[in-house]
Amino acid sequence: LFGLDDEVGLQEALSHGPPTILLLEELESLFLARVGGFQAINYLLELFRALQGQVMLVASCRRVPFEYLTKALGPQIGLPHPYYIPRFSDEQLRTLILARHQATGVPFRFDREIYGVSSEAESTEGLDRQFFQILWEQSQGNPAAASALWLESLNADLEQPGGVLVGVPPLLSSRLFVESQDDELFLLASLARHGALDGSEITMVAGMGRKRVDSILPRWLRAGVVEEREGLYQIHIEYEFLLTRYLKGRNFLNAR
């Protein structure tokens, strides 16, 4: 942990050093929801309780894994100041995305097909406003999801060489989940609860054999619900809100 080979070495280094702020990304990577799967995170939390006043821990964690950890560990989690990043408004999403796009220097315009889902007057301002309202509904104010959906909305503009045409954001549906078997949903719930897992870890926490895991994953990869990065599988950011809501409704994830 933190580049040191043993627990004693880490505690000694921190206790005898200057006051320190440690930044830890992906706190969810330190546990598995199984017997014996909390040793790393329990050690980390105990360490920082022992070094309180000497070391401050600033950790990031996805919302669903953090909800699970606070229920699984209760008061033992000992993180006194959790901060939940608020959702962006549609106007905040617009400001962020257009600033990033304008930095590329690529001209863009909104496709008239947006009129088909808009009650606005046929104007550039109306298209702009309606697009970002739809984008907010699809992303639920998550800027990472909104950015991914923005990119998927872009197509080459045949009327303006070198430019892009912005169409309707992809409309995500829970139909895939409705038509799924329970073990397929258990696999998705395992990924949602942990953030990212490799194939062996999925078998341990989802309670199914490796052959079944290997037969389920390709379906979700083809559908774009799951993505694979460096051997780790995770829910695609675009589907996080839709999938979490569905899994909680079916009691595959605790809703409270």
In short:
This protein is mostly helical.
Features:
11 helices, three-stranded mixed beta sheet, single chain, mainly alpha, 7 strands, globular, 47% helix, 256 residues
Task: Give the helix/strand layout.
Elements: H1 7-15, E1 20-24, H2 39-50, E2 55-59, H3 63-73, H4 90-102, E3 108-110, H5 124-139, H6 143-152, E4 154-156, E5 164-166, H7 175-178, H8 182-194, H9 199-206, H10 210-223, E6 226-229, E7 232-235, H11 240-249
What report would you give on this structure?
The chain is mainly alpha-helical and 256 residues long. 47% of the residues lie in helices and 11% in strands. It has helices at 7-15, 39-50, 63-73, 90-102, 124-139, 143-152, 175-178, 182-194, 199-206, 210-223, 240-249; strands at 20-24, 55-59, 108-110, 154-156, 164-166, 226-229, 232-235. The strands form 3 sheets. Strands 3-5-4 form a 3-stranded mixed beta sheet. The chain has a two-stranded parallel ribbon with strand order 1-2. Strands 6-7 form a two-stranded antiparallel sheet. The chain is globular. The two termini are 32 Å apart. The model has no long low-confidence stretch (mean pLDDT 88).
β-sheet strand percentage? 5-15%
Q: How big is the Rg?
A: 22 Å
Order of helices and strands: HEHEHHEHHEEHHHHEEH
Helical amount: 40-55%
Q: Tell how many strands the DSSP assignment holds.
A: 7
Point out poorly predicted stretches: none
Structural class: mainly alpha
**Which word captures the global form?**
globular
Q: How can the largest sheet be summarized?
A: 3 strands, mixed
Distance between the termini: 32 Å
Overall residue-averaged pLDDT value: 88
Helical segment count: 11
